[in-house]
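Sanity check

After download, print the first record. It should look like this:
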Amino acid sequence: MRIRIIILSIAILACINVSHAQIMAYTAKPLDVDSVKNDFENQPYFGLYKDNYFIFGPSLKNPNNTNTNIKFQISIAQRLTRSVLPWNTYLYLFYTQKCFWNVLEKSLPMTALNFNPGIGLTKPLFVKDRFIGKLTFMIEHESNGRDSIQSRSWNKVSLAGNIWVDPSLMVHGKVWIPIIDGENNRDILHYCGIYQVGLQVMSPNRRFSGSVIMTKRLGKFLNYNTVIELSYRFLKRDNQYFFMQYYNGYGEGLLDYNKFHNQIRVGIVIKPKFFSEF
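Expected structure tokens:
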């Protein structure tokens, strides 16, 4: 057990050190047309897409060494075009990888990996010269890299939107047309869903934020997968946060997409500059 704790501590410290290479200072400049377009056009071609986090915690139902684990996510975006495309859009490659690591079990197995590449067009949205959010049209693939009966795979043609209702409240929505090619997950819509909605609230100084993300499963009216997240930023001008995530529902990982999870984890997260994707 002592060796496992040491390994876990080293892994967390390594994640913190690597994160410093991804830091983008938070700036409080007005989000008008010119400043946002300047950010889009002059930002590094390679950057963050979704939240990048490293969290650890137990199941809330019968916690043990098997269901107490580390969950970490790496998510990046690569802009493909130098100039603005028609309709003021930008073309990106996206890649997200999620891993579940059972550090309390013997041999410390990484029990599941999810791979989620995609390509899409992003369009910033403005109302009366004020930046209010963005739309992203994307073609994406998600699989777990396994074969035989443990193989899981599906594809989505999706449209996602992030809208700032006011400076402290953002709403999010995502709908998709599924293309299910995995022979062992034909019923995946009953567990991983058909659309997603959410909201994020932030304190006036943007050091604290909370979000709720709900994914509607196929079937009954109120069957949602629910994620609740709380974040507190270390320093005023960094995008590293203390992070807590609560997951309730199915589809947290592809391998066990049809198994119910009720899990809470804490750790650190590195967030994109404007807002998080879900």
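If your output differs, re-run the checksum step. Summary of this record's structure: The first strand starts at residue 46 and ends at 48.
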